[in-house]
Amino acid sequence: MALVGKPVAVETDARGRPVRFFWHRWHRVAGIVDEWREAGAWWDGEGERQVVRVLTEGGGVFELERVAGSSQWVLYKVYD
């Protein structure tokens, strides 16, 4: 597993779940493995984050996170 922490372009469905994202190239999401919400570092003024663990069509597993109320996504983890 590698921590990345880099902003990525993400296309979502009508419910706000990722359907594809760009990291070196476009990755199409084959399925959502898990999703949850985490409290951000409230002491630093961070809001709640949506975290989605996805399986891509190529067999990769990635975690994408988005700060609630924002359209900006971050690639948080890549699983080897």
UniProtKB/TrEMBL annotation:
InterPro entries: DUF6504. Residues 10-79 form the DUF6504 domain. Pfam families: DUF6504. This is DUF6504 domain-containing protein. It comes from Thermaerobacter marianensis (strain ATCC 700841 / DSM 12885 / JCM 10246 / 7p75a).
